[in-house]
Each structure stands twice: as C-alpha cells, then as structure tokens.
Amino acid sequence: MTKDKELEQLFLAQKPHFDDSAEFMQKLTKRLDAVEFVKQYQERTLRRYKMAMVAVFVVGIISGGISTWWLLSMPANEPLFNFNVQTGFLVWLAQNSRLLAASGLSLLMTLGICSVISNVLEIMDMRQSMEGKKGWLVM
Amino acid sequence: MNRETFISCVEREQEALRGFLLALCCGRKDDADDLAQDALVKAYLSCAGYQEKGKFRSWLFKIAYNTFLNHKASQQVTQSIDEARTLAGSSAADFCFEHQDLYLALGTLPPKERSAITLFYLNGHNIKEIATITDTSEDAVKKQLSRGRDKLKERLKL
After folding, report:
1. In a 3-state reduction of DSSP, which class is residue A92?
2. A139 vs B67: CB contact, 8 Å cut-off?
3. CA distances from B139 to A1, A17, B24, B27, B113 (A)
4. Could you identify which of A103, A138, B40, B136 might form a hypothetical disulfide with B140, taking C-beta atoms 3.0 to 4.6 angstroms apart as the criterion?
C-alpha cells in the first residue's frame, strides 16, 4: 500500500518533539522503583508461604508417621479405647476403634495433602503472574 | 531483560511512543504521558514475556495500544469535535496548537483507524507491523488505512 504524499508530508511536518524527556525518564524511574519495592515485598511473602508449606508438609509427614506407628504398635486384640459401658453404639465404637482411628487419620492426611497441593498451585500461579508471564496484553 | 537494558531501550523509544500516544489522545499531552508511563510499567512487569525475536518497538507499541484501548473503554465517554475544540481552547498548555487541526481530525476517527493511520504515517510502520501491533489481519489494516485516509483528507480538505 502506497502512502498518500500529502498526508505523509503533513504528519512529517507535525511530528511532535519533546523537550521534557529527562523529566519523563525520571518519573518513569521513580515508578519503576515503586514497582520494584512491591515486587520485592511480594517475593518475600511468597518465600514465607513456601517455607510455611514446607514446614506444614514436614510436620504432617512426621505426625502422620508417628500416629500410624502408634496405631500399628498397639496390641491387635485390644481396642484403642474403652468406654466401660454396655450401650450398643459405644460398644461398637470401642470394638471398631482401630479401624475408625485409621480411617480418621487417612481422611485427615488426604485433606492435608489436598490443601498443601492447592496452596502450592496458588503460590506457583502468584509467582507466574508476578513474573509477568501471562496476561500482559490484556492488562 | 534486566532493568538497565530496559531503561536504555525505553530511552531510545520513548519519543516515538509518546508521539504515538499523543496522536491517539488527540494532542492531550498529560493523558498521553500518563498512558505512556502506565504502558512502560506494564512493559517492565512483562519483561520476562518479551522474546527478543521481534522488535522492541513493536512490542512496546502493542502494549501501549492495548493500554490506550483499555483506557478508552474505561472512560466510556465520546467527545464530539466541538467538545474537543472547547477543551483545546480552555487548556492551551495541554494542546500543541501547531498540531491542532491534525489532532482534531484524528479525533474524529474511530480508535482503530486512528491507530493504523498514526502508526503508518507518523511512526513509519509497515502493514505487517501494524497488523502485529493491533492484533488484526493485514487486510483489516489496509481497510482501516484506506477509510481513515479518506476521512482525514475530507476533514483536512486536502
């Protein structure tokens, strides 16, 4: 497509010149400093989240291991707890105490793992958006 | 791209970018500079997404163009040519008088045609580059340029 000569001349003649480039760059540098400060703060927060996740994971593994070991180390023919009453439901609870405790522990560990995975994904998402890897065109 | 490289690239391109946004904002220098600052901050935050295959200028202009469109959409205000004329009369500092006629004529164009015309005539981009910056097809850019040119010539009585 060829350029219209008259329009081209008009645009060339009226090309703006800026004599405040230094001030503009100074203002930009100040804004970038502010952005940098916020970015560093976010990075610190992310690091703290990551450390907290690692700590939760380690504590979960240790406490889960100890609980499982405790459950398995109890004598198999003895219930975990006894209510010393003969009511039907409580007797059933006492008889199945080992199974119920194991199920409860498994449920707790599953929920914990799901929560940790969800938090890790959230941290990864935050890091990605902080690094500007997505959505820069729609900002 | 680190901060120093980014700043040195911006120093090279800032006049062209500000000129482009000034034309899109129909000569309102403060608005254009605010948009330029916003666009540059967004560009800085997106440095990681910049692949040095293309031109830095096209990449920067694409962000500026999107920033302008978002700003325009958020304003939801349409100014008539008369309103623009009144604005120009009341705030002389905001308006470059020697460019007044051109900017007023540009102001009557829809944003997409205005962008295409400005990129083509003011910044010297070719059709392919304009298509990349405005995220449209080359045919669409040609149509925008043709329509924009006719309207501008009519308004400017060229």
Report:
1. helix
2. yes
3. 11, 32, 22, 28, 13
4. B136
A14-31 burial by CB neighbour count: b if 16+ within 10 A, else e? Answer: bebeeeeeeebeeebeee
* Shortest distance, CA B99 to any CA of chain A (angstroms): 6
CA distances from B47 to B1, B40, B43, B116, B148 (A): 6, 10, 6, 25, 33
Name every chain A residue with its beta carbon within 8 A of the beta carbon of B122.
11, 15
Within 8 A of A137 by CB-CB distance, chain B residues are 62-63, 66, 135
HSE of B151, CA atoms in CB hemisphere, 13 A: 17
User: What are the tens digits of pLDDT across the range B43-102?
Assistant: 998 887 676 666 888 889 999 999 999 988 887 655 555 555 555 544 444 445 556 788
Checking if the pLDDT of B139 tops 90, the result is: yes
What pLDDT, on the 0 to 100 scale, is given for residue B91?
47
Partners of residue B65 in chain A, C-beta under 8 Å: none
Question: Which residues are within 8 A (CB) of A10 and not within 5 positions of it... i.e. 6 or more apart?
Answer: B102, B121, B156, B158
Q: Are B141 and B119 in contact (CB under 8 A)?
A: no
What is the Cα–Cα distance from A29 to B59, expressed in whole angstroms? 20
From first to last of its 139 residues, chain A has per-residue pLDDT tens of: 777 788 888 888 878 888 888 999 999 999 999 999 998 998 898 889 888 888 888 888 888 888 888 877 877 677 666 667 777 888 888 777 778 888 888 888 888 888 888 888 888 887 777 665 554 444 4
- Spell out the domains of chain B, with CATH numbers in brackets: 3-156 (1.20.140.160)
> Do A53 and A126 touch, CB atoms closer than 8 A?
no
